[in-house]
Amino acid sequence: MVTLRLRVGRGVFIVPPLVVVLLVLIGPVILLSLYSLNLRTNIPFAPTGLSYDNWQDFLRGPGNPFRNRFVYSMEFTLVVSIATTVAAYPLAYYLAFHARRFRYTLLLLLIVPFFTSYLLRVVAWSDVMLNENGVVNQVLWAIGVQPRGVGVGWLLYSNFSIFLVLFYSWIPFVALPIFAVLENMDRSLIEAARDLGAGPLGAFARVTFPLSLPGVISAFVFVLIPTTGEFITPLYVGGPYNQLFGNEIQAFFGNSPNWNYGAVLAISLIAVVLVLTLLFGRFLNTDLREGVATA
Amino acid sequence: MSALWRRLPTLSLAAYYWLFVLFLFVPLFAIVVFAFNASPIPTLPIHALSMQWFTRAFDDAELTGALLRSAAIGAATGLAATALGIMASIGLSARRLRLRAVVVAVILLPLVVPYISLAVGMLIVLQELSLELSLWAVFIGHVVIALPFAVLVVFPRLRSLDPAMVEAARDLGAGEIAAFNLVTLPLLVPSLISSFLICFITSFDEFAIASFLAPPGQPTYPVFLYAGSRTPGLLPELIAIGSLIIVFSIVVVVVAEGGRRYIERRLVGEVEA
Question: Which residue among A6, A29, A87, A260 sits deepest, i.e. has the most Cβ atoms within 10 Å of its Cβ?
């Protein structure tokens, strides 16, 4: 009887954090929904009343620029996620299988940049590395690839710069889940494949790689979900024509306020991210699904 | 020749790794180098070195004000989110918990909700409640987005503790609360420090929520950085401060990680001994 009471008592501690998260997340979602349906508005003297017009326009309107921007953003996000995952794989592979004794130190070296300010890294690219007189152009001038004084046109405020900065920001983080899977892999399976006559590439293609897929997928999702709502990198290193969907939302609540339409976009973004999470959530192994087995 | 051929995969993977390390560190290194550049324009070649941007940055009341604001909100976020993270971890460690899957999903939800949507949503909430923009609102938003990180750091540590230690304390007469304070909490300390640091960084670096909810004239550091990087005259000061933040965070991460490995090795050693 006493133990039963203790168990109930311990579960109670979940209530305060749960309430805080629910209040702070659900309040905004409810109000965004009301605004998106025109039940409330920020526009002075505009009539309110249930209306699906904004949703109709965004989802069905022919050639709707915001829907186009959304599709474009998702494609861009997909490219960034795939490129980052592919590039991170050899890093994780090197650390897990070749780096031996120093692998955790080398892993730390790879991850340290992730803990320095994200904004500062973006500023480093936009104002020191890629700009007209920046380090990259200077190096290109010095080695004679580019005539001195002429900056490479697509280096900054372009799709290239947005891609590069996102790739740069994510790669340390993305190597982690792949490394974790490779590190914990049963090495005897690879040895068995080799003993049975597989070459090193064959053993990789038929044993190591398939076994590492859960890590690869979670790495991919680690980039996919946050990049879907990305707006800081395009703000700094993007031009007027290659802003992402997040920037559209920002604009509706910033300089040209139309909260009703902006709410449609903000809710859509949340919905897409939740769907992605539901689809891929089981690959994000968080260890929180069971209690303490022995408690 | 054949020995070299056999080592080729390792060598090329090593080369690939070190090229990436170079790629990752060059922009950070560039910030640190340009912080000492005498010229107001961050460009090569560097003709003269100077400390003037550091002096000017620390004399700039707006810049130091923004830094202090962010440091205060970051520290408050670190404390509040870690405290809530401990509670959530204790709750989740209950053997039976109603709707566990739902509870876990809600606690982790802030990891996936786009900050931009949360920011504009919170802006509407303030407006509807007729509340002014405030740093308190920024703080509350930051606590919620930092909480999942706190739980992800503290909970695995709590779960890995040997229940026999708590049972021993209970057998020796400690009440449940005393056993928690005397046994569980001290063993959690390394994870609590990690949690505080991660939550601090999350808040210190957060732009979306702060840019919508911080009152005009009271920008946090990221908001100030955004406005300032568009002002050429301010850029050298921002680079100087940026170099300090980069060096400081690298030192903290390396020391924290080294310390964590050391402490956990010692704790494991004690338990096994």
Answer: A260
As given in the structure block, the two tokens for residue A67 are: 């829907």
Looking at the partner chain, which of B120, B152, B242 has a beta carbon nearest the beta carbon of A123? Answer: B242
> Which of B141, B210, B211 minimizes the C-alpha distance to A255?
B211
- Chain A residues in contact with B204 by the CB 8 A cut-off are 117
- Structural domain boundaries in chain B: 35-272
CATH H-level superfamily of B35-272: MetI-like (1.10.3720.10)
CATH code of the region A65-283: 1.10.3720.10
**Closest Cα in chain B, distance from residue A98 (Å):** 6
Domain ranges of chain A: 65-283
d(CA B205, CA A115): 10
pLDDT along chain B (273 residues), means of 10: 77 94 95 88 77 91 94 97 95 81 90 94 94 95 96 91 83 83 86 92 94 94 89 87 92 84 72 52
The confidence score (pLDDT) of residue A162 equals 96
Distance from CA of A254 to the nearest CA of B (A): 8
Distance from the A153 Cα atom to the nearest Cα atom in chain B, whole angstroms: 18
Helix (H) or strand (E) holding A41: none
ipTM above 0.85, yes or no: yes
What local confidence, expressed as pLDDT, does residue B268 receive? 67
HSE, side-chain direction, 13 A CA sphere, residue B122: 32
**Residues of chain A below pLDDT 50:** 1-2, 4-7, 290-295
Contact predicate A294/B163, CB 8 Å: yes
Place of tokens 């910030």: B31
Distances (CA, A) of B174 to A11, B72, B82, B170: 21, 37, 25, 5
Task: Report how far residue B214's alpha carbon sits from residue B227's, in angstroms, rounded to the nearest whole number.
Answer: 13
Task: Calculate helix-pair angle for B185-204, B61-92, nearest 10 degrees.
Answer: 140
Of A20, A120, A269, which has the smallest distance from its Cβ to B242's Cβ?
Answer: A120
Partner residue opposite A273 with nearest CB, options B96, B112, B229: B112
Are B107 and A288 in contact (CB < 8 Å)?
Answer: yes
Residue of A245, A250, A251 lying closest to A226 (CA atoms): A245
Q: CA–CA separation, A294 vs B162, rounded Å?
A: 9
Among B12, B90, B124, the strongest candidate for a mutation testing the A interface, having the largest count of A CBs within 10 A, is B124
Q: Distance between CA B178 and CA B169 in Å, rounded?
A: 9
- Cβ pair B225:A119 closer than 8 A: yes
Residues 6 or more apart from B192 whose CB is under 8 A from it? B82, B86, B154
- The predicted pLDDT at position A294 comes to 33
In DSSP notation, A61-77 reads STT-HHHHHHHHHHHHH
Q: Which of A17, A27, A236 sits opposite B88 (nearest CB)?
A: A17
- The DSSP string of B116-177 is HHHHHHHHHHHHHTTPPP-HHHHHHHHHHHHHHHHHHHHHHHHHHS-HHHHHHHHHTT--HH
Chain A residues touching residue B120 (CB < 8 angstroms): 28, 32, 249-250, 252-253, 259, 262-263, 266
